[in-house]
Design brief:
Blueprint (H helix, E strand, L loop, with lengths): L3 E6 L3 H11 L6 E7 L3 H10 L4 E3 L2 H6 L6 E4 L6 H10 L3 E4 L7 H14 L3 E3 L7 H11 L6 E8 L6 H4 L21 H11 L4 E8 L8 E9 L5 E7 L7 E7 L2 E6 L3 E7 L3 H7 L9 E5 L9 H15 L7 H20 L3 E2 L4 H14 L3
Helix pairs in contact: 4-5, 5-11, 6-8, 8-11
């Protein structure tokens, strides 16, 4: 196809931004065909701002006008992502979904089956992957700059939120409406980055805080241990009730340490010799391995991460360019999230892949008893 006609489903905070971006033709090869908005005030606003764009009153109405668009952009509350995705797949429409992919591995797997059956593409809006610092870190790690990886530590508690945020929508920060808190919301991007840079962990042990900083039942603090069978051991620390926060990812390997500071600086502290080789040749009792630190220069992109995600999706449909973040990546991020919740609930280390059925049952119990 020469031009991807997109229908945005959801006209809230991010949905309105995507609508404007597409309407203003900021994405090469992609245009805005329609917007699905359930409330009348939003529909009136859309007709005034974008008079030549179709306005759909709900998902059913959207799919009934499927001849007007080629792909959907899903920007709705978490619990609706999979059902909308399934409806789009059955209608033969390609899918670009905001995070999270869904609320459980069980339902995301069902969506992946539907997209495969329908032969449609399914991408995730994991815009943090487009950050040039993470892109460069990925390139360096894949090239073996650290040798064999041993340890990773990510402290990312820059998510401070007040009650004004948590009460901004009835579904927010609840088991019933959002199916979690910090991990399924703010941390989705960084859990994706973890598995993208370091690979999918093989097991998880999580200690989570529920309502430590807020008057609700979902998680707002996390201390998580990720274990990889290749010997890598990782610690992921996050919170939405602490300020000032820190965002620092440090990765150690046999050749040194890589540090990503505030998602904007990349620092390599490189051993002059691999520690395994040094251990073999060193004859001194307190032999010291020298290392040299330098900041890696990274060119900044002119486009935003969101623009780059949409451009990649457009290029994928028009030219066959590989997706930067596919539905399978969304499944991995939600698997890490579900695994951490399950570990916390069961008070034990949990292996991946998790028990999909057990998680779905326990989550449903949470949703039935939830109250803000």
């Amino acid at each position: 196809m020469e031009q991807v006609r997109a229908a945005v489903i959801g006209y809230g905070g991010m949905g309105s931004k995507y609508v404007k971006m597409l309407y203003d033709r900021e994405i090469e090869g992609m245009s805005l065909a329609g917007v699905c908005c359930r409330n009348q005030a939003g529909q009136a606003e859309l007709r005034e701002k974008y008079p030549e764009v179709s306005v759909y009153r709900d998902v059913e109405d959207t799919m009934a006008h499927g001849n007007e668009f080629d792909a959907v952009v899903i920007v709705t509350p978490h619990t609706s992502h999979v059902e909308i995705g399934k409806a789009a797949a059955r209608a033969g429409k390609h899918i670009l979904s905001d995070k999270p992919a869904g609320i459980s591995t069980k339902e995301v797997k069902e969506l992946l089956e539907e997209t495969e059956k329908a032969g449609v593409s399914y991408g995730m809006i994991f815009n943090v992957r487009m950050n040039p610092v993470f892109q460069k870190a990925k390139e360096m790690l894949d090239a073996g700059c650290l040798g064999t990886l041993h340890r990773a530590l990510w402290i990312c508690n820059t998510w401070y939120r007040t009650p004004a945020y948590h009460h901004s929508a009835p579904w927010r920060s609840t088991w019933k409406g959002e199916c979690g808190g910090l991990l399924i919301n703010q941390s989705q991007h960084y859990l994706d980055i973890w598995q993208w840079l370091l690979g999918m962990p093989d097991s998880v042990l999580a200690v989570l805080d529920y309502g430590k900083y807020n008057d609700f039942q979902v998680d707002d603090g996390a201390d998580i241990q990720f274990y990889h069978k290749n010997g890598l051991h990782g610690t992921f620390i996050s919170a939405s009730g602490e300020n000032p926060g820190v965002n620092r990812l440090e990765i150690w390997g046999t050749k040194g340490r890589l540090c990503i500071e505030d998602t904007s600086r990349l620092i390599l502290d490189e051993n002059v010799m691999d520690i395994q080789e040094f251990a073999r040749v060193n004859q001194e009792i307190y032999g010291k391995l020298e290392h040299r630190q330098r900041e890696i220069s990274v060119e900044k992109e002119e486009a935003t991460g969101y623009q780059m995600v949409f451009k990649n999706f457009s290029d994928h449909l028009r030219k066959g360019t590989p997706l930067m973040a596919a539905g399978e990546d969304g499944l991995r991020a939600i698997a890490m999230t579900n695994g951490a919740y399950l570990s916390s609930w069961l008070d034990k280390r949990v292996d991946f892949p998790i028990d999909d059925g057990l998680y779905a049952r326990l989550l449903e119990e949470k949703r039935k008893t939830d109250g803000k």
